[in-house]
Write a structure and sequence with these properties.
By secondary structure, this protein is an alpha/beta fold. The strands form three sheets. A seven-stranded mixed sheet has the order 4-10-9-8-7-5-6, sandwiched between helices. It starts with a helix and ends with a helix. The model has no long low-confidence stretch (mean pLDDT about 95). The chain binds 4'-deoxy-4'-aminopyridoxal-5'-phosphate. 4'-deoxy-4'-aminopyridoxal-5'-phosphate (PMP) binds next to helix 4.
Length: about 425
């Protein structure tokens, strides 16, 4: 047995599925997940000593690559001063100031420890603010694992082929209405019928948990207009898109301002951190100012805040996103060209530093189109690429990420591996 296989067998004896988050188990692509021992820049190393060019980046946080020196240094310096206080610190204020300055829809913000906590708290706030119970989400969007949001969700739920979880009371699930992403007609219908009962709409402004689907321009605009008209709280879940698609996140990119937004991943620089924030009058409903309760022992943890600040400050460098966008586009255009040369039915697209790969002639625009993709072809592609040292997300339903640490040589090596892989699939 290889070292990875030995570790995986051992892990499965004490950890369900051997993993602490389901998609890590490689269930959909099959095989043994590499156990990582080290990461540096664009690369990771596994227990067998293999190295890979990493396009997962811890599922999005690592926009500067692994072990970014300034981020690591900031965490070390913070740790030397104490790991946690459960009391306010100046770093939290700095991070709040930075987030409210850069994110268009954010007047006030509260820090939490994960994306799940951020979305869970934002929907409680939407309900508390409006005095209504109904929540709208979109099929295939994933917003973390709180009860109300595990209804027809994406990411690991799609990977495991079961988009709704056991253990969510039917009484609770009935308050979550599920619509089709990009379906403008469906929005008009549901608001016409129940608009005055809808507390909030939560949406990924670019869907990144059913592979990658970009929003039709009228989709986000219609959402904004209907939510305003009916007094419904519009929540952009920017846990993935936040600081990934641009410095002002998806809301800045599309020029549509939500009432609340949720963040995670990049804002913690690889440490556990999430945030929800938005319009002042809504945020003032949170305890201790208002009646909506939300709290956390480790919220605003000094190490997480230090990592987040050290990361975010580097994203403000002129040209950062132009370079990241250009590099990500070079990757997706190169992959598409390689597939074409090898006669493969394949497409790809990038937005900022995130990308989607599709075993379909054109990028999907709906959940149904995602589900119609050739997952068997993806799985063959996945393992061939892994064998050639390219680490992609182990599921056809996930987006990929490029970091500032990826070099032109990394992109060229990835394209060479893909050319070989597509040729193998064709043979
Ligand atoms: N929302 C979105 C859009 C996400 O992509 C994720 C995680 N992938 C979450 C929420 C949940 O975040 P976390 O895993 O940090 O709880």
């Amino acid at each position: 047995m290889t070292a990875n296989e030995t570790l995986f067998a051992r892990a499965q004896r004490t950890i369900p599925g051997g993993v602490n988050s389901p998609v890590r188990a490689f269930r959909s692509v099959g095989g043994t997940p590499p156990f990582f021992t080290r990461g540096m820049g664009s690369r990771v190393w596994d227990a067998d000593g293999h190295s890979y060019i990493d396009y997962v980046g811890s599922w999005g946080p690592l926009i500067l690559g692994h072990a970014d020196p300034a981020t690591v240094h900031a965490v070390q310096a913070a740790a030397a001063n104490g790991l946690s206080f459960g009391a306010p610190t100046e770093g939290e204020v700095e991070l709040a100031e930075l987030l409210t300055r850069l994110v268009p829809g954010m007047d006030m913000v509260r820090l939490v420890s994960s994306g799940t906590e951020a979305t869970m708290s934002a929907i409680r706030l939407a309900r508390g603010h409006t005095g209504r119970d109904t929540l709208i989400k979109f099929e295939g969007c994933y917003h973390g694992h709180s009860d109300s949001l595990l209804v027809k969700a994406g990411s690991g739920m799609l990977t495991l082929g079961n988009p709704s979880s056991a253990g969510v009371p039917a009484d609770l699930a009935r308050h979550t209405l599920v619509l089709n992403y990009n379906d403008v007609e469906g929005l008009h219908d549901v608001f016409a019928n129940e608009g005055d009962r809808i507390a909030g709409v939560i949406v990924e402004p670019v869907a990144g948990n059913m592979n990658l689907i970009t929003p039709r321009p009228e989709f986000l605009a219609t959402l904004r207009e209907l939510c305003t008209r009916y007094g419904t709280v519009l929540i952009f879940d920017e846990v993935m898109t936040g600081f990934r698609v641009g410095l002002t996140s998806a809301q800045g990119l599309y020029g549509i301002t939500p009432d609340l937004s949720t963040f995670g991943k990049i804002i913690g620089g690889g440490m556990p951190l999430g945030a929800f924030g938005g319009r002042r009058e809504i945020m003032e409903k949170i305890a201790p100012l208002g009646p909506v309760y939300q709290a956390g022992t480790l919220s605003g943890n000094p190490l997480s805040v230090a990592a987040g600040l050290a990361t975010l400050r580097q994203l403000e460098a002129p040209g950062f996103y132009a370079a990241l966008t250009e590099k990500t586009r070079a990757l997706t255009e190169g992959l598409t060209a390689a597939a074409k040369r090898q006669g493969q039915r394949f497409s790809a697209q990038a937005i900022g530093g995130m990308f989607g790969l599709y075993f379909a002639a054109t990028p999907p625009g709906t959940y149904a189109e995602v589900m119609a993709m050739d997952t068997a072809a993806f799985n063959r592609f996945y393992h061939a690429m892994l064998d050639l040292g390219i680490y992609l997300a182990p599921s056809a339903f996930e987006a990929g990420f490029v970091s500032a640490a990826h070099t032109p040589a990394d992109i060229a090596a990835t394209l060479a591996a893909a050319e070989k892989t597509f040729a193998g699939l064709a043979a």
